[in-house]
């Protein structure tokens, strides 16, 4: 079988003579670029490169978003679909963790409801951390990515719409799959025991039955404004701890404030409908119209206009 690789002849580099005056400088530079070993203590000392950046500037981050939009527009649809499915699962795991933590503290909810919301907010960002680190496709952050790419004219509107459609449906499939996973897992706290079961039903009802259509639209705007800021800041961080810290701050804010995220609702409300549709008091069709539609539109406005468009016009990206 023929080898898949072809041998490439590498030209011989000419010998370079370093002047004596530069040898000590080169030796000194080399010392600081590599770890040194202290023979007396047996300790390895690493010297930090002062040129390594821990964070990129906002203009650099905006250009990175534009480059990501081009990459996303050229990714095969089935890869986007799979990555979107996985993103829905990951975000749902974060949502389940948040429901379990906040729902297990009814006494705190009765005496200090703000603290119970904070407990939910502290757990929820786990899902977005997994999504950003693994490179999965989340619809709400893709709103920002593809808006910047479309404004710079590096991608077509058809690319934007196709990416949004595939990532949205893929996220929905992943969220519904995870809801079914918890439902059919049997005797788990979220679906079988109080206070978690009661908290889940109340959580879903408060998102669908109580607020108006316009209120949900505005809550969706605020939510994805903060979610896209979290992704924007995570892109600027160059290490995993910086990315997670950047994600946590805005996500804890949006969840504690009670804003609405369409993909997160696809998990929590679908799970509540599976557990006890009678207690919830509405059906799947009503959820789609009353909650998911206005929240989705709000998420598009929040991420596309207030983050994607805003930072594109502030920092600029070279257009074709």
Quick take:
With 320 residues, this protein is mainly alpha-helical. Helices cover 73% and strands 2% of the residues.
Q: In this structure, how is the largest beta sheet organized? A: 2 strands, antiparallel
Shape descriptor reads globular
Main-sheet strand order equals: 1-2
Share in helix? over 70%
- The low-confidence runs, each spanning 5 or more residues with pLDDT under 50, are 1-48
- Number of DSSP strands? 2
Structural class per helix/strand content?
mainly alpha
Strand percentage, roughly?
under 5%
Strand and helix order: HEEHHHHHHHHHHHHHH
Radius of gyration: 25 Å
Strand and helix layout:
Elements: H1 20-33, E1 36-38, E2 43-45, H2 58-73, H3 77-103, H4 106-111, H5 113-123, H6 125-134, H7 139-151, H8 157-184, H9 189-192, H10 196-208, H11 213-236, H12 240-257, H13 262-275, H14 277-280, H15 284-315
Antiparallel strand pairs: 1-2
Helix pairs in contact: 2-7, 2-11, 3-5, 3-6, 3-8, 3-10, 3-13, 5-12, 6-12, 7-8, 7-11, 7-15, 8-13, 10-13, 11-12, 11-15, 13-15
């Amino acid at each position: 079988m023929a080898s898949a690789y072809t041998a490439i002849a590498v030209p011989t580099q000419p010998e370079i003579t370093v002047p004596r005056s530069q040898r000590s400088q080169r030796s000194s530079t080399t010392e600081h670029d590599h770890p040194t070993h202290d023979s007396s203590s047996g300790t390895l000392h690493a010297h930090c490169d002062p040129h390594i950046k821990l964070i990129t500037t906002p203009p650099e981050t905006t250009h990175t978003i534009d480059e990501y939009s081009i990459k996303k527009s050229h990714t095969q649809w089935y890869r986007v679909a799979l990555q979107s499915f996985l993103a829905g699962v990951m975000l749902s795991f974060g949502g389940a963790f948040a429901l379990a933590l906040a729902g297990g503290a009814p006494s705190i909810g009765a005496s200090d409801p703000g603290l119970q919301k904070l407990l939910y907010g502290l757990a929820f960002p786990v899902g977005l951390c997994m999504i950003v680190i693994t490179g999965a496709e989340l619809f709400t952050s893709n709103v920002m990515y593809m808006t910047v790419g479309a404004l710079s004219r590096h991608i077509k509107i058809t690319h934007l719409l196709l990416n949004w459609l595939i990532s949205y449906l893929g996220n929905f499939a992943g969220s519904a799959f995870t809801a079914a996973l918890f439902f059919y897992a049997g005797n788990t706290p979220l679906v079988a025991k109080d206070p978690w079961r009661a908290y889940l039903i109340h959580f879903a009802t408060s998102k669908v039955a109580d607020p108006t259509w316009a209120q949900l639209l505005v809550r969706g705007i605020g939510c994805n404004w903060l979610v896209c800021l979290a992704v924007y800041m995570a892109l600027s961080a160059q290490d995993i701890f910086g990315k997670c810290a950047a994600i946590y701050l805005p996500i804890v804010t949006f969840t504690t404030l009670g804003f609405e995220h369409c993909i997160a609702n696809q998990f929590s409300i679908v799970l509540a409908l599976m557990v006890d549709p009678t207690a919830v008091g509405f059906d799947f069709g009503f959820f789609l119209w009353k909650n998911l539609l206005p929240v989705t539109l709000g998420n598009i406005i929040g991420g596309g206009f207030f983050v994607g468009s805003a930072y594109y016009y502030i920092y600029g990206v070279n257009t074709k």
